[in-house]
Amino acid sequence: MFELDASIPAAKQCPICGQTGDRKFRKNHIWIRDCANCSHRFAELELGIDEVGQIYDGQYFQGDGLGYLDYLAEASLLRKKGQCYGKLLEGYCWPGTALDVGAAAGFILHGLMNYDWQSRGIEPNARIGRLGREKLRLNITPDTLETFPKSECYDLVMMIQVLSHFYDLEAALEVADRVTRPGGLWLIETWNRSSWTARLCGKRWRAYQPPTTQNWFSPCSLREIAEAYDFEEVGQGNATRWVSAPYLRSLLRYHGGFWSYPLEKLLAIIPNSWTMSWPVTDRFWAIYQKAENLD
């Protein structure tokens, strides 16, 4: 697991509006704050590109806890997600060029390309991105959105479960704005901090996992952020995620708690091939369209 360097400075200002945030609770020895001005929730943490490389190493994609139990074993589920979003986008635009941010090995990207999108991906973990290039023949380069060249333009910027991971949220969104053509779209999927599961679990909610996650949104707060960049929300809904029995057992082992042991024993009788849907309110998707004419 990534060990936080004590020399890393704590971010006390909101990454959205720059105002001071109030401490709410601690998770993984890191304070989580709510902005006193815009109510954005963020981690009291200020990372750089070097720390990002450490966080999203091989263990994030294969191991109990903060990331995937076995990313490669979820290939078919992730490819299906890409196909679902390809189908969804048919109601909003024609296929064009797409940038997949945080593409990993490109399984979601691969599914999207079944709907005639010309796509490329960026991924901070060079090893997992190389797998997508070599096995799926995808155009995936080792990069983060914060440092991505602003000279390219796309009809779609896809940010599936990456918005909460940006180490510099303002810089990332500014680049996302610059590389989106007028009239182009952002497709975002992220955790819903206003969901009933988030309210029920409190600080034990699955999405509160700094340093891997650093920002948390509601549909309302994300809409306001997009509007600040002259993007209008044109679609929004609950995002379904299918997870495997081994993944659920991994979550129980990692999070602990009184009911973890008996529930893990109960899940032990379920075949590893079995999948179930994550609570549908726990994540949401949204599509935002950039204004056509910008002065």
Question: How is this structure best described in words?
Answer:
This protein has 295 residues and is of the alpha/beta class. Helix content is 30%, strand content 25%. The strands form three sheets. A seven-stranded mixed beta sheet has the order 6-5-4-7-8-13-10, with helices on both faces. A four-stranded antiparallel beta sheet has the order 1-2-3-9, with no helix packed on it. Strands 11-12 form a two-stranded antiparallel ribbon. A hairpin with a 5-residue loop joins strand 2 and strand 3. The chain is globular. The N terminus is likely disordered.
Percent range for β-strand residues: 15-25%
- State the separation between the terminal residues, measured CA to CA: 47 Å
Q: What is the CA-based Rg, rounded?
A: 19 Å
* Overall morphology: globular
Percent of residues in helical segments? 25-40%
Could you tell me the number of beta strands?
13
CATH level-four homologous superfamily name: Vaccinia Virus protein VP39
- The unreliable regions are 1-8
Largest sheet: 7 strands, mixed
Name of the CATH architecture: 3-Layer(aba) Sandwich
Number of domains: 1
- How many helix segments? 10
CATH class: Alpha Beta
CATH topology: Rossmann fold
Overall structural class, as computed from helix and strand content, comes to alpha/beta
Q: Determine the mean pLDDT.
A: 83
H/E topology pattern: EEEHHHEHEHEEHEHEHEEHHEE
